[in-house]
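Weekly structure sync, notes
Attendees: PL (lead), two postdocs, one rotation student
Agenda item 3: pending single-chain targets
PL asked that the sequence for the first pending target be pasted directly into the notes so everyone works from the same version. It is reproduced below exactly as submitted, 334 residues in total.
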Amino acid sequence: MTALPTAAHDFAATLAARGVDLSRRTCRTLQVNLTKLCNQACLHCHVDSSPKRTEHLSREGVERCLELLRLNPMLEVLDLTGGAPELHADFRELVRGARALDRTVIVRHNLTVTLDPHPTSGASMEDLPEFFAEQRVQLVSSLPFYEQYFTDKQRGRGVFGKSLESMRRLNALGFGIQGSGLELILVYNPVGAFLPASQEALEADYRAKLRAAHGLEFTQLFTITNMPINRFAEDLRRRGTYESYIQKLVSAFNPVAASNVMCRDLISVDWRGQIYDCDFNQMLELEVEDAGTALTIFDLDLERLRELPIKTEAHCFGCTAGAGSSCGGTTETP
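Predicted structure, written out during the meeting:
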C-alpha cells in the first residue's frame, strides 16, 4: 500500500473551496476486479498484476454479483477488470449470466491475453474473440501508443506486435468496425509523469496511424491519467519525480472534471468481495464503510450506499487534473 501526502495536498479541502459536489448519484456500474493474475506485468499497472499473482474472486462472489444485477435494475453495466479478467475460471459464466439479464458487459481486455497461454493452466485463449462477439461485450483495451517503441517500453517487449495481431482478429469479427455494433475502445496512458494530451486529438492521430500503417480500426479512444499509486508511484520515487508529479496534478485541478468523476455512480469490488468507491481506492485499501464497518457485496444495500460519503485522498487529483480521467476516459463535459 502506497503512502500518499494528505496534509499538503488536501483533496477534500480543494473540493470544498471550489464548491464541487461529490455526493453519490444512483449507482449504474458494478465494476469487479476478478483476479490479480495477468499474463503481463506493466510498469504503469496500479493493480500490481502479474503472472505470479493468485488472488481471485470466489465462486460465491461471482454468484453474488449476478444476484446483485438481478435484484437491482439500476445496475446497468457490469465492468470486468483484473489483472486479466479472462483468466478467472468463472469469467465466461459471469459474462453469460450478465448478458442474459440484458446488462452491458465491459471487459478490460489487454489484447495480448488472446495470444498467450493461460499463465497457470497453459490452456489456449485463442477462442476469446469469438466468445466476445457471441456475447456482444464491449472491449476496452490498452494500447499505450501507435508505435512499437513506446508501447513495448511501457508494457514489455513484443506487446505491440501481439496487440496488433489481436486487433486484426477482432476487426475480422466486426469489433471496431463502424455499423457492426461491436465496440473496441482503445486506452492511452502517458509513458511517463505527464498528463495525457487532448483525447479528441489523440483519437484522430491513433485512427490515422493505425489505419494507414496496419489497416486496423477501433471505435473510440479513452485517455487515462497515470495514478500515483503502487507500481507507478514506486517508479516515480526511484526517479525522484514523485512529489513534482503530485504537484502537477494538484495544479491542474479542474472543477468541471471533478463534478463528473466515476465514483459518483460506480462501485468497485475486489477479489475478496469488498466494496470501494473506485478501482484506485481499492488498490489503496480504502474500503467503503458504514458506521465503521467495511462493506462487502454480501451485505451491500444500494439505497443505503447513496447516504455514505466517498473516500478521497491525494491520488484523487489524478482523476480531476486537466480534462479529467476515469475508466471511461475524460470526465470534462462541454
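Discussion points:
- The chain has one domain: 11-320.
- Residues 123 and 307 are 45 Å apart (CA to CA).
Action: rotation student to compare against the earlier draft before next sync.
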